Structures are given as structure tokens and as C-alpha cells.
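Board notes (copied after class):
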Amino acid sequence: MLIVGIAFAAAQHRLLQPQKGRIAVISDTFTASAYRRGAFYDYYCSHKPAASNSNNKNGSSSSVSSISSSNGSNNSNGGSSIGSSIGSNSSTSSTTTTTTKPDRFCQRHNVKCGLECITIRVNDDPASRNATPDTLEAIQKYLGNFSSRVDVITDGKVSTNPTILNDYDKVIVLHNEYVTQTEYSAIIHHEKVVYLYPNALYAEVKFDPVHSTITLIRGHGYPVTTIANGFGWKHDNTREEYDRDCNNWAFHNLDEDYDNNSNTKAIQLNCYPEYDTSDDTPILEDVKFWKVVREY
């Protein structure tokens, strides 16, 4: 009986642990909190001018090629499309806007506040509200059927236990605009990452798990207006989040050469998928789009 009990306990332990060969999706709970009323954007709007998510970013992307929705098109980061046509849309132009995020958001983020707005409470439960609910639902629909395990973990979980990502073969990053330094390092050093949103890894925050708060540390025009990306991330593609049509969606292949780790690979979407305004099949319902994500 003792042997049976030990074997059962071991099997139960294995079931409870993240297993190699799985996909981790990092739910953007910090970003969802930052966009609430009385939070970061009310601070930004109360202290204009601030460095906004405009097309003029620190550094330039170093992507070398892209997997595209149309053959031979040039991607906006300077690489050229490779491989066969992937995706349903092949139009040659897409609608973008030059309106910066703070200008747009200040129309409704009109609460006047000071430094009290840069430390905010977060709900870091995986089932709580996140910034990209439609995408999470699509991931479960299109990837859950092809993977024996897709785990949703939170910003806070990665921040307090960054080695958890080592248990996964692939990490999917959503609109994780606000992350801790620990989380940032864990993501960029992972062996395979799919960035499903522009504007990821944009500003540094400090996470207090005891009080369930995050505090803005650096980025997005804070603590000085000349700071855009708080990490100085060379692959920042925030300027591409203003493409809401995704008519020419493409994944840039990134050359992630941190620590000279040649095993680190990543791809990055060149448009904002959550609010697809095109007349064709929405990108989050495009099986060819999810085929790229699944097979990468």
C-alpha cells in the first residue's frame, strides 16, 4: 500500500507541474490595471507633455525577415517576406493613424492625479480581467485543440517565479506593455517567443505581491519625458500598434542575440489584432494566422 501511495503521489505531482513541450500564454494583467481610471494614463494626461507611443521610438527594430500574409511584400521593420503566402488578406495598403495613445486616451482619462496614480492595485488572478480577452479566447479555441496543454500564467507569476517559463517550449506574449525587470528578462531570454501584439515590453513596473500593487518605474515618458521604452528594447515595434486593419499582417523574425544565446528565437506581429477593422476575415479568426503561431 505504501508503494502504491508513493506512486500515486508522484503521478499527482507530475500532473500539477508545468510539463516541457507546452505553451505558456502570459496574461497581461498588469497592463489591464494600468489602463483603468485613476491609474497610469490619468497620470500621463495630468502631466503632459509626455513621451507617447508615437512612431519615433528609442532605437530601431532589428528584425531580419518576416512571415507574411502576402508574398514578397516589404514589412515595416525593413525585412523582406519569406516563405509561401500565409493568411487570407493580400491588399497592398492598410489604414493607420498618427494619433498618439495619450492624446486619444486623454479624452476619457481626465482624472487629475499625481504620483498616487503610479502605484495601483492589480488583480493578478489568471481568471481576472486582462487587456486582451478576445485573443485569449481565440488562443484557447485555435491552439488548445492542437496542444495537449496551453497554460495561462500572469505577469505577477512570472515576476515572482521567472523560472516557470523554463517548463515551456513556447511563450506567447500578449499586450504585456507593463512588465517587471524580472519578467522582461525571463521573456527575452526564453528559447522561443511569439509576440502577438506591438507595444509589448514597453514600460518597467515594480510588483508588490504582498499588497497586490504595481508601481511605474521607467518608460512611457516617466520619470523624464525623453524616455520612451523603459528597457531600451531594440525590438520595440510600438509604432505598428496603430495598424488596426491587419490587411498585411506579418510576423517579423527577430534576431534575439542577448547573452550571445543563439538558441533564442522570436517572432513579432506587425499589427494590432484585437480591433481588426478590415472587411475580410478577422485575424483572430484566421486559421492560417493561428497555423503560423502553432507551428513556429
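Comment from the instructor: Residues 41 and 130 are 16 Å apart (CA to CA). Residues 2-16 form the longest helix (15 residues).
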